[in-house]
Design brief:
Radius of gyration: 28 Å
Bound molecules: pyridoxal-5'-phosphate
Number of strands: 26
Number of helices: 33
Helix content: 25-40%
Distance between the termini: 73 Å
Largest sheet: 7 strands, mixed
CATH class of the domain at 568-765: Alpha Beta
CATH superfamily of the domain at 568-765: Type I PLP-dependent aspartate aminotransferase-like (Major domain)
Length: 969
């Protein structure tokens, strides 16, 4: 008997992904259940989740596929995309992603699984990469101050409008001028934003900007159709009337062109996509944004700044109040939270790798090809009704043709896409991938095969005749990228080591758990990530004809169906590029719905005091007045206060924004009642979907009774955080809101509202990261998804239970259970010992952990969300670290340890501390750096000591410091 080998059928049993995604195995789950006093997962869920909101039926997301199955099925879907050579332009260009960056950044969990750098001592690597991005922005735009990154060019333009309104001295003006040669999607997004702010948009030729009484104006340089004009007089004229001028610019062209700053612009913005980030059918890409130093307090998004640590060495961290915009709630400059950090890093590495000379060569080559193309078209075009619209250009030609449809069809037949939305003309945009063959193919398509032109001959003509396609006065004379970092790492070996040296400074999920409450740092499985860099997904232009994007459309539709099922809604929009953008899009839908019913007076949004700061920041963006609703001592929305406020507001109630389970980490029993109260007063319920990890398969926003939610695909659905982005924040809505979902001016979205404006530059947002969520759902299936939620709840309750008696758990729900996260109250300890939540957060670094969410939603607390992906081993390690820290606190409390000369106060400890020949602390070095036995196996060294925030804000430096300053004196 003991010798029987398993049958072939047994050996053939599929290795399910579910057990790979979910950390604890069967045995561990049993142990944990018994530790918390539940007999089974079902029992735990019954104890924890209010019976009234339990879904009556399982999800309809199919059976979980294996990694092999899911990858091969998705590959077949991806193959339905047709990858043409793209000459469309309009802000999206093909690019060669340097392979060293592709593999070591984009495909590297050390970079893509990192969190937003709120804990700068263990994030100096990506902070340096973002600082480099700011330096690239500053150098190329010629402005003084740059922010870390924004979501895309179009939303950056809308943010510029917001900044203009805040800082313009023309306070009574309500007009924002948008020149008629900006990208159409930018106008669309800006128009949508302006409608909600109540601004009037006037469009016309750039030259007319100063004819209106404006608080600001948006110009494009070079224009959307490729022309390069000297806009300095226009800028000066608008400024003379106290208007603020923003210039949307193209990063590559700025290598050769006089900068917007030199032309007098107040703001410069644009996309950094063509610096080595694939088009990806629309994203993700980083937008850059720069302005004058004097507007620093009005800047949207994050700024990385230089400060110093407790050893007086330079150290980077997020600067100013813009550390996180939305923390200022309704007073925020914008609602930007998650914002494309990974892609900004890629773009900055592209600049580091190529350096100023390499970039110049790339830009000049692109421009030479444009000159050659233009010369050929001019020579042979006249007889064929072909002519250039503009005599100046960098890389984009607008070619007037007699039969546009014929030209486009010929191009498609040859596997080429031209810009198709211009009247009587096609657009041809070149990029760094353009070759001589491309130029000949373009001649063939536009002039016919008998053109007789040769690239070599044309090149000779172009060089000898000194074609002046860039006006003399607009040729850049200022240097770019003179900082050492851009002049050092040009061999692959050096580049690889630079990237690795930065990666080593950062603690990401490939080192240890990052238990961030509200942010769901779960596994980003390799099989989910692999399709992201498939060419079939990477190389599509977002405005490619739909019949070339069949694979994408199929994948998006299937994912949307699943998400609709998971949320219990009726329709979905994939357009928003982050959770906060989803909030904005959702509130927009609500306001349009009210308007459609003649209820445009409804302008109040009820938000509980515990809400995430993006909620009020987003409400402000659609001109809603925020009324705060109190929470009771259990952390629940105070129903009496809600009723009272709803009544007071009466007919003016637009909506309530709630989070479920609440940010306090409990399933409120009364959530259905909350929805009822809001509905009774004619309001809509917006449910923030950040906590969907506690709902999937068990309950749903739609089932509970809310009307609209965003999903953070970069939380619940496995898109990695990328060190602060990318993200995707699709919104689900009930059917009555479906007609108000964002559409797009260039590509009509069938499932969207008919006349609704856009909220992002691309119709399906950051489409190229959707395969991550697709793969997750495909591999988990209905059962796996529900299991993930159950184990997420189990893990949180296990941590809460094990920490009980050592720490106070702030809020609990039914049967003393927490939801998928729990809040540890540190205030009593601080009171008794003087040890702060910051000390504890930093001390956790010494133990090899990232701190949980600090002081949100309650000051002086840590919010722990372990997620289902963490195995019991890792949870125990974390729990033991916390208990050990508690014992350390006791020593401070009792006076055994000095109030400041102790390892908590001095945390985190660096190698510089431990190797200091003047170590004169009263505690042991070993205790400082190796406080637990497991640390010996896998030590993480923070590279700087605790950072002085105040110093950095008083001495704001947001560009790269010299390399020498890093070397200890
Ligand atoms: C993360 C989060 C948001 C914002 O999402 P972003 O993608 O960062 O914009 C909103 N609400 C809650 C509760 C969150 O946790």
């Amino acid at each position: 008997m003991s010798n029987t080998s398993p049958t072939l059928a047994q050996l053939e049993q599929k290795d399910t992904f579910i057990r790979r995604h979910i950390g604890p195995g069967k045995g561990e789950i049993e142990e944990m259940l018994s530790a918390i006093g539940a007999s089974s997962l079902d029992d735990l869920i019954e104890q924890t989740v209010p019976a009234g909101i339990a879904l009556p039926e399982p999800l309809k997301c199919g059976e979980g596929a294996t990694e092999v199955e899911a990858l091969s099925e998705l590959k077949a879907v991806a193959a339905k995309n047709k990858i043409n050579r793209s000459f469309i332009g309009m802000g999206y260009y093909d690019t060669h992603v340097p392979n060293v960056i592709l593999r070591n950044v984009l495909e590297n969990p050390g970079w893509y699984t990192a969190y937003t750098p709120y804990q700068p001592e263990i994030a100096q690597g990506r902070l340096e990469a973002i600082l480099n991005f700011q330096q690239v922005t500053i150098d190329l735009t010629g402005l003084e101050l740059a922010s870390a990154s924004l979501l895309d060019e179009s939303t950056a333009a809308a943010e510029a409008m917001g900044l203009a309104k805040r800082v313009s001295k023309n306070k009574k003006a309500n007009i924002f001028f948008v020149s008629d040669d900006v990208h159409p999607q930018t106008l669309d997004v800006v128009q949508t934003r302006a409608d909600m702010f109540g601004f009037e948009i006037v469009t016309g030729p750039a030259e007319e900007a100063a004819e209106h009484d404006v608080f600001g104006a948006l110009l494009q340089y070079p224009t959307s159709t490729g022309e390069i004009k000297d806009i300095s007089d226009i800028i000066a004229a608008v400024q003379a009337k106290k208007g603020i001028v923003a210039v949307a610019a193209d990063l590559m062209s700025l290598v050769m062109l006089k900068s917007p700053g030199e032309l007098g612009a107040d703001v410069a913005l644009g996309s950094a996509q063509r610096f080595g980030v694939p088009m990806g059918y629309g994203g993700p890409h980083a937008a850059f944004f720069a302005t004058r130093e004097s507007y620093k307090r009005s800047l949207p998004g994050r700024i990385i700044g230089v400060s110093k640590d407790s050893r007086d060495r330079p150290a980077l961290r997020m600067a100013l109040q813009t550390r996180e915009q939305h923390i200022r709630r309704e007073k925020a400059n914008s609602n930007i939270c998650t914002a494309q950090v990974l892609l900004a890093n890629m773009a900055s590495f592209y600049a580091v790798y190529h350096g100023p000379q390499g970039l110049k060569t790339i830009a000049e080559r692109i421009h030479r090809f444009a000159d050659i193309l233009a010369t050929g078209l001019t020579q042979k075009g006249a007889s064929k009704g072909v002519a250039l619209k503009h005599s100046t250009y960098f890389d984009t030609l607008t070619v007037m043709v007699e039969n546009k449809e014929d030209v486009l069809a010929k191009a498609y037949a040859k596997g080429m896409n031209l810009r198709a939305d211009l009247e009587g003309a096609v657009g041809v945009a070149l990029d760094e991938t353009t070759t001589r063959e491309d130029i000949l193919a373009l001649f063939n398509v536009i002039l016919g095969d008998d053109h007789g032109l040769s690239v070599e001959d044309l090149d000779a003509e172009v060089t000898t005749q000194a074609v002046k396609s860039i006006p003399e006065e607009l040729v850049r004379t200022s240097d770019i990228l003179t900082h050492e970092v851009f002049n050092k790492y040009h061999s692959e070996t050096e580049m690889l080591r630079y990237i690795k040296s930065l990666e080593n400074k950062d603690l990401a999920l490939n080192h240890s758990m990052i238990s961030l409450g509200s942010c769901t740092m779960k596994l980003n499985a390799t099989a989910e990530m692999i399709p992201v860099t498939w060419a079939e997904f990477g190389q599509l232009h977002p405005f490619a004809p739909l019949d070339q994007a069949v694979g994408y459309q199929e994948m998006i539709a299937e994912l949307a169906d699943w998400l609709i099922d998971v949320t219990g809604y009726d329709a979905l929009s994939m357009q928003p590029n982050s959770g906060a953008q989803g909030e904005y899009a959702g509130l927009l839908a609500i306001q349009r719905y009210h308007e459609s019913r003649g209820d445009s007076h409804r302008n109040v949004c009820l938000i509980p005091s515990s809400a995430h700061g993006t909620n009020p920041a987003s409400a402000q963006m659609v001109s809603l007045k925020v009324v705060v609703v109190a929470c009771d001592s259990n952390g629940n929305v105070d129903l009496d206060d809600l009723r009272k406020k709803a009544e007071e507001v009466g007919d003016n109630l637009s909506c309530a924004m709630i989070t479920y389970p609440s940010t306090h980490g409990v399933y409120e029993e009364t959530v259905k009642e909350i929805c009822d109260i809001v509905h009774e007063h004619g309001g809509q319920v917006y449910m923030d979907g950040a906590n969907m990890n506690a709902q999937v398969g068990i309950t749903s926003p739609g089932f509970i009774g809310s009307d609209v939610s965003h999903l953070n695909l970069h939380k619940t659905f496995c898109i990695p955080h990328g060190g602060g982005g990318p993200g995707m924040g699709p919104i689900g809505v009930k059917s009555h809101l479906a007609p108000f979902l964002p559409n797009h001016t260039v590509i009509n979205v069938e499932t969207a509202g008919k006349d609704c404006g856009a909220v992002s530059g691309a119709p399906w947002g950051s489409a190229s990261i959707l395969p991550i969520s697709y793969m997750y759902i495909k591999m988990m299936g209905s059962e796996g998804l529900r299991r993930a939620t159950e184990v997420a709840i189990l893990n949180a309750n296990y941590v809460a239970k094990k920490l009980e008696g050592h720490f106070e758990i702030l809020y609990k729900g039914n049967n003393d259970r927490v939801a998928h996260e729990c809040i540890i109250d540190l205030r009593p300890l601080k009171e008794a010992s003087g040890v702060t939540e910051l000390d504890i957060a930093k001390r956790l670094n010494d133990y090899g952990f990232h701190s949980p969410t600090m002081s949100f939603p309650v000051a002086g607390t840590l919010m722990v969300e372990p997620t289902e992906s963490e195995a019991k081993y890792e949870l125990d390690r974390f729990i033991n670290a916390m208990i050990s820290i508690r014992q350390e606190i006791a020593k401070v409390e009792s006076g055994e340890w000095d109030a400041t000369d102790n390892p908590l106060h001095n945390a985190p400890h660096t190698l510089a501390d431990i190797c200091d020949s003047n170590w004169n602390r009263s505690y042991d070095r070993m205790l400082a750096a190796y406080p637990a036995p497991e640390v010996h196996r896998n030590k993480f060294w923070p590279t700087v000591n605790r950072i002085d925030d105040v110093y950095g804000d008083r001495n704001l430096i947001c560009s790269c410091p010299s390399i020498e300053s890093y070397i200890e004196g």
